[in-house]
Design brief:
- The protein is of the alpha/beta class.
- Helices cover about 45% and strands about 20% of the residues.
- It has four domains: about 150 residues, Rossmann fold (3-Layer(aba) Sandwich), CATH 3.40.50.2300; about 140 residues, GAF domain (Beta-Lactamase); about 140 residues, 2-Layer Sandwich (Alpha-Beta Plaits), CATH 3.30.70; about 220 residues, TIM Barrel.
- It is built from 26 helices and 26 strands.
- Strands 18-19-21-22-23-24-25-26 form an eight-stranded mixed β-barrel. Strands 2-1-3-4-5 form a five-stranded parallel beta sheet, with helices on both faces.
- The protein is elongated.
- It binds ligand C2E and calcium ion (2 copies).
Length: about 750
């Protein structure tokens, strides 16, 4: 607040009084002059509680002519009276105001009334006081725009006239500015306008235009501001957000790097002073807010007058809140459309930007990609969120650096980034290569892979949302394929998904309303004797239009959504009820095989529920075989082994389903408890013709025997297959050749007929 005192504050020490005419003897004083002619006169209000001062002043000012016009002297004897006059009388140019009147600060209080209550801003105020040393606070002078301050003894006639002349000229200029639609009214209007704009660029450009108008000169200016959302406003570098005239070359550059010495100096000074700084023809206005530093620099090309300086002060105050306003809007905008962590656009912004491009010229050659970080949650869990955040920022940066500035890039969810642009820029191989180098985050060197789902624009996609959906499908495809790190969307993916969603929806209803679901039973026989040993329960679902939906389609879906737990439990209960029914009717002691999904085995409740169901149906556990696939063995972990052990302890038997198709079957067999191996029907199909399939089947049988495990061949459809299997020593069989899966009633009838009961 030091070197830039406003023009209204007296700068030099009071001079020695030269012609002390003011305080004349009573008789020398003339009457208050009546100002003659009917032309325009400057209206001056003299406020003083001392009649002598009134007379002396009137005397000193008689016949005075300022810039071609005489004076009209109005008088008040108290602040209260002055207030009345000021409210009533228009066009008062100057108030000569006594400080000490009815109260020691009545004059100062009146100043506040004039400026703030009555709102007379062009009116010039000259404070006078009889007591030297009783000076108003400097900041009161600044605050209330007081023109001059003099002790009465200083106000010699010459001095009084000089002071009054300066004040009247200032008033005239302010008024002229108002009349000419520049100056104050311009300021007022500008302030209103500037409050309406929503972007800092629009604000800056309007501001520079108005400054030119205000100073009646070409617009040579630059508005510089810190980044919209910065942690430390005062430390950030200011960027030229809008520039005109001779500063135009600095547009968009950092001030310090603009190479413009005038601009750099002016901005530095203004940032330090945080107020209006006038340096010769160059004025700098402070526009900053709590959160964002901002400065407007303007070169008027000539020295600025006092009035102009004052106007600039008024201008700066009235618009500074405007910039804060704009800043607020931009910040709101930022948080609505940007991810504050990576400072990349967010999903909403990405969608809007891409939609704009799609609407504009439908560039079929573009593509959209979603990149997600492989196993990001593991890193997050292991190293903490701060580390995860830092990694996300680094990944965002690396992606940006890899794909270049032409590509639109956004963070669309937790660990997923989206990119849109030319396929030559969004190249899966280039991106994969870019991620080979580790990330150094909080002292950890992290190897990170990104997985890409890519979709070409066009290709039936009308919007960013559709493209994102398709890219996501492709991403899922890549995710499911395990080792694959990128996948390009194809039509088939979306059809599959559409069907899948509808299917899930219907399956939910089927489960909830027990609609269309049934369990069918397929016999398992001794191929040599034809004796029925057991039965496999197979789930059937008939859709709303009577169509049969294969369990191979809906079971995986039910597994992915967890619905398999309910569904499987229901199958189990149905099957156990059948068993007890057959027993009660003496239809034979058939073993029941029920397919159990690995998902069911992951649930803690499975064991208890099964135990309860067995008790309810009152059938021996040993007659129940749970068919599980080899993949269960793959996820061998402690909880699963305990569960399997608990089931075995209950007496339940296990069959390994589809044996031979899984990974490293033989190895798994050592890990999994099994009583029965079901040779997959793919080996059975050609067992009569293909020696290699025969070899596979033979080795499975050998292996099973060596472990004391039973073997069943699935999918036996004809006599030849049956014979081949019998030759290899596999008697236990299941397949259409012996019996297709049947409803419970049909199976009952089939069993009765077969057993000749
Ligand atoms: P899976 O356990 O291997 O069941 C045997 C499948 O082979 C059944 O198909 C059956 O109808 C079929 N099949 C039986 N004999 C022959 C034959 O001679 N030739 C041919 N080509 N096929 C034969 P389905 O019923 O369509 O079941 C398919 C798969 O769905 C089952 O394979 C099983 O993995 C699963 N699944 C069926 N029901 C359930 C269930 O209740 N729970 C669970 N988790 N999965 C089930
Ligand atoms: Ca099975
Ligand atoms: Ca099977």
């Amino acid at each position: 607040m030091s070197g830039d005192t406003p023009a209204s504050v007296p700068e030099e020490a009071p001079e020695v009084a030269d012609d002390p005419l003011l305080f004349l003897e009573e008789d020398e004083l003339p009457d208050i002059p009546a100002y003659s002619d009917g032309g325009f006169r400057w209206r001056v209000l003299m406020v003083d509680d001392d009649d002598e001062v009134h007379r002396a002043t009137a005397f000193a000012l008689r016949g005075i002519d300022i810039d071609g016009c005489g004076l009209e002297l109005l008088t008040a004897r108290s602040a209260a009276e002055a207030r009345q006059i000021l409210m009533r009388e228009p066009g008062i140019a100057v108030v000569l105001l006594d400080v000490v009147m009815e109260t020691p600060d009545a004059g100062l209080a009146l100043v506040q009334t004039i400026r703030e209550e009555i709102g007379l801003n062009t009116l010039r105020i000259v404070l006078r006081t009889g007591q030297p040393g009783y000076a108003p606070e400097l900041d009161a002078i600044r605050r209330f725009d007081i023109n001059d301050y003099r002790t009465k003894s200083e106000l010699t006639q010459t001095r009084l006239i000089t002071t009054l002349t300066a004040a009247i000229r200032a008033y005239a200029q302010l008024e002229a500015a108002v009349v000419n639609n520049r100056g104050l009214s311009l300021i007022v209007r500008s302030a209103t306008e500037l409050f309406r704009v929503r972007s800092s660029h629009a604000f800056a450009s309007m501001l520079l235009e108005r400054l030119g108008q205000l100073l009646s000169c070409p617009s040579n200016g630059a508005v510089c501001a810190g980044d919209s959302v910065d942690d430390d406003a005062s430390a950030s570098m200011l960027r030229v957000i809008c520039a005109t005239g001779r500063f135009a070359g600095s547009q968009e550059r950092y001030v310090e790097q603009s190479g413009d010495g005038t601009l750099i100096r002016a901005v530095r000074r203004c940032r330090a002073a945080r107020t209006v700084v006038v340096d010769g023809p160059v004025v700098t206005l402070w526009l900053g807010s709590m959160t964002r530093d901002a400065v407007a620099c303007f070169d008027a090309g000539r020295m600025l007058s006092d009035v102009e300086r004052r106007l600039l002060n008024v201008f700066a105050t009235s618009i500074s809140a405007g910039f804060e306003n704009v800043d607020l809007f931009e910040r709101l905008d930022f948080f609505a459309f940007f991810d504050p962590l990576t400072r990349l656009p967010n999903r909403a912004r990405f969608v809007a930007d891409v939609d704009k491009i799609l609407l504009a010229d439908r560039p079929a050659a573009h593509c959209l990609a979603i990149a997600d970080i492989v196993r990001f949650s593991d890193i997050n869990d292991a190293l903490g969120h701060r580390c995860g955040d830092a990694l996300l920022m680094a990944v965002g940066k690396r992606l940006r650096a890899t794909v270049g500035v032409q590509v639109i890039i956004a963070r669309i969810s937790g660990d997923a980034f989206a990119m849109y642009g030319d396929p030559t820029h969004i190249d899966a191989d280039v991106i994969r290569h870019a991620f080979e180098a580790p990330f150094f985050v909080h002292g950890h060197a992290l190897s990170v892979q990104v997985r890409l789902g890519i979709v070409r624009a066009g290709d039936g996609h009308d919007s960013a949302a559709e493209l994102l959906r398709s890219a996501n499908l492709a991403l899922n495809e890549a995710r499911q394929a395990g080792g694959v790190t990128s996948s390009v969307f194809t039509r088939a993916m979306s059809e599959e998904v559409r069907d899948r969603v509808a299917l899930l929806h219907n399956l939910r209803a089927a489960i909830d309303f027990r609609r269309g679901l049934a369990v069918h039973y397929q016999p398992q026989v001794n191929g040599r004797t034809g004796e029925v040993l057991g039965v496999e329960a197979l789930l059937r679902w008939r859709g709303d239009y009577g169509e049969m939906i294969s369990p191979e389609r809906f079971v995986p879906l039910a597994e992915r959504t967890g619905m398999i737990n309910e569904l499987g439990q229901w199958v189990l209960e149905e099957a156990l009820e059948r068993m007890s029914d057959w027993r009660s009717r003496g239809l034979g002691m058939l073993r029941m095989s029920v397919n159990i999904s690995p998902v069911q085995l992951r649930s803690d409740e499975f064991v208890d529920r099964l135990r309860a169901s067995l008790q309810l149906a009152d059938v021996p556990a040993v007659d129940l075989t749970l068919e599980i696939t080899e993949s269960v063995g793959l996820e061998a972990h402690e909880a699963l082994s305990t569960r399997l052990a608990a089931l075995r302890a209950m007496g339940v038997r296990f069959a390994i389903d589809d044996f031979g198709t899984g990974f490293s079957s033989l190895q798994q067999l050592t890990r999994m408890p099994a009583d029965l191996i079901k040779i997959d029907r793919s080996f059975v199909a050609d067992v009569a013709r293909s020696s290699s399939d025969r070899a596979v089947v033979a080795s499975i049988i050998m292996l099973a025997r060596s472990r004391g495990v039973e073997v069943l061949a699935e999918g036996v459809e004809n006599e030849a297959q049956k014979h081949a299997l019998l030759e290899l020593g596999c008697d236990y069989m299941q397949g259409f050749y012996f019996g297709k899966p049947m409803t419970a009633e049909t199976f009952d009838a089939w069993l009765v007929e077969r057993n000749g009961l």
